[in-house]
Amino acid sequence: MTTAELLEYRKKIIDDAIRLKKPDRTPHFANFWTWKILDSGYKLSEALHDWKKIEEATINFAKKYPFDMVVDDGVRNPRLVISAIGEPAYEIDDEAEIMNIRDASYMDPEHYDLLIEDYARLLWEVAVPRRAKGFNSEMTMEQLHEAFRQFGLMGLTMQNIARRLAEECGVVQGLMSGGTLLLGFELLFNFLRGMQGVAFDLRRCPDKLKAACEAIERMMLEPQLAAIKNKTYRPGPNAAVHTCTALLGHTIVNQKQFEKYYWPTLKKTIDAVVEADMTLYVFSEGSTKRFWEYFKEIPAGHVAFHVEQDDIFEFKKALPNCCAVGGMPASLLGNGTREQCVSYAKHLIDELGGEGFILSQDKMISYRHDANPENLKAVCEIVLEYRS
After folding, report:
1. CA distances, 329 to each of 326, 378, 382 (Å)
2. In terms of DSSP bridges, do strands 243-247 and 357-361 run parallel, antiparallel, or are they unpaired?
3. Which residue, 215, 269, 213, is CA-closest to 243?
4. For residue 378, what are the contacts with CB-CB under 8 A and spacing of at least 6?
5. In whole angstroms, what is the distance from residue 125 CA to residue 123 CA?
6. What is the value of pTM for the model shown?
7. C-alpha distance from residue 161 to each of 41, 54, 65, 164, 193 (Å)
8. DSSP alpha helices (H): ranges in 165-205?
9. Of 185, 255, 263, 269, which Cα lies nearest the Cα of 223?
10. Which pLDDT score is estimated for 176?
11. Residue 308 clears pLDDT 70, i.e. is over it
12. Cα–Cα dist 107/32, whole Å
């Protein structure tokens, strides 16, 4: 099979799995992140400050471990861009081989009125100067040019990675392949108010928080949904999933809050995807079990959920209308034996590998001991040859 033929084959088995058709074999997603850098022999600080090393680490990983799709495109942590504008939130410890991102708020509750009135102005006048310590009246043109130059190099690196994954490895593009449809709550939770800030605002100013979510979505999400409905939304040329979204902030909300802040927009997003006969990959962390009653409304054959902390067998039984992604415990990959990993992979394929299942890791694999390379190789190899 040529690389081009392998790429098309992988696209098909992924699409079949999400559309609840039985694929030729179970697809395999790589939920691997900064682990790729360490496995390539680079220090985190070394690779994250060198676009070429990020690219090589991603391609080396794809060649070494034959996954069908690499979820992370390698530039989730664009240190070179944010360093140029004075972003202080990232902390790298090369000795411990870890990276932390501090929870931070780049706006205060009193800024909600400005966000609701003019989201773009809020970004430029409040959020960006707070997040980027170098972005102020003292910033020189040379510093600004360097930030834009690094941003351009990041885009070029993403293009190179996508092209090389396809041409050299026959591997499908990951999360950014078709763009990301982010809900307003997620943007506030992850980027503007932070986890602690949003947790307080849910109780202190819930109506303004809701209005802020809607204002963000009017500017960011609704044009994307309109493009989907008008059939002008274009996924990457090497994508197997048309688009994606993320559920991260749901971890701090209850059912009533989910129904207020999440479900109306998520349902609108899913409806647009279904109307266009597209597919959606939901990258979710934590547990979604308390929201499964809502997910039962999702039309069959369009949506795949990454299952992190919930029992994937229980998820699939409760939501046969959705494709389940995950199943392989990071704890087993990191601490189990080769035989245990292979046996559990076979068990997952036997039980779930009919329609609507994509094998992946339950957690984001980020640090060295999250996965043993020999265990990972063995699982990748067995997925290629094993049929349920």
Report:
1. 8, 15, 16
2. unpaired
3. 269
4. 338, 341, 342
5. 6
6. 0.96
7. 18, 9, 16, 5, 32
8. 184-187, 194-204
9. 269
10. 56
11. yes
12. 32
